[in-house]
Amino acid sequence: MPSSGVSRVWLCVSVGLGSGCGLLAAYAGAVTSRAGQETELRADAVRNRARILRIAREQLAAGDTSLQLNAIARLAGVGVGTVYRHFPNRHALVEALSAERFRELIAEAQAAVAADDPRAGLHRLLCFGLDRMLDDPDFAAVLESAVDAGSQTSDMRAELDQAVTGLLDRARLSGAIRDGVDAEDVRRLLCGVQHAVRSGGGARRDLYLDVLLEGLRPPR
């Protein structure tokens, strides 16, 4: 039989452990609750960002290129502060929208590289890129601008250039395009065609694109 002193020690230890377990359980519950709240906040932020971008795309499709952040907040049903947390200014919003366009263009360029006929792949890529620029003047401006290493799209631009370079290499080996033309040249030429088509109201799109393609052929 343990002495009364030992019994008191065991009683204190038992009570202490019980209290500690209760505190640990309460702490674990609080941490789990906070983690759940943070997850929900992150999911809510993702939904808000997607909603803002969708409204901005709809505004562009409707011909409104102003992309006023206050108006977009109202149409998206979110607070103005929410919009500015995601996009501090119009340029940041344009960059985010352009990132989506870049992803589309990169996918098209990679498909063109895998095409059996590299010249046909190049033609499809140029048509696709031209139409995206005509649909979205802000994307055209981003594509035409000098590379900004700090921008959201700088890595995407490099990935696009890599895919286009691979396509041009294949086309050159097949004798479809002249030597000395690189991805940067093609980008600038396509931006020039976009300006020409836009200034002419779009009626001579196919002609200007054909002139570009013919100009890329090797000299006869």
Automatic annotation (TrEMBL):
GO terms assigned for molecular function: DNA-binding transcription factor activity; transcription cis-regulatory region binding
Domain HTH tetR-type stretches: 46-105
SUPFAM superfamilies named in the record: Homeodomain-like, Tetracyclin repressor-like, C-terminal domain
Domain of life: Bacteria
Keyword terms of this UniProt record: DNA-binding, Transcription, Transcription regulation
DNA-binding region: 68-87
Pfam family, one: TetR_N
PROSITE patterns reported for this sequence: HTH_TETR_2
Alphabetized InterPro entries for the sequence: Homeodomain-like_sf, HTH-type_TetR-like_transc_reg, HTH_TetR, Tet_transcr_reg_TetR-rel_C_sf, TetR_SbtR-like_C
Gene3D superfamilies in the cross-refs: Tetracycline Repressor, domain 2
Name by which UniProt lists this protein: TetR family transcriptional regulator
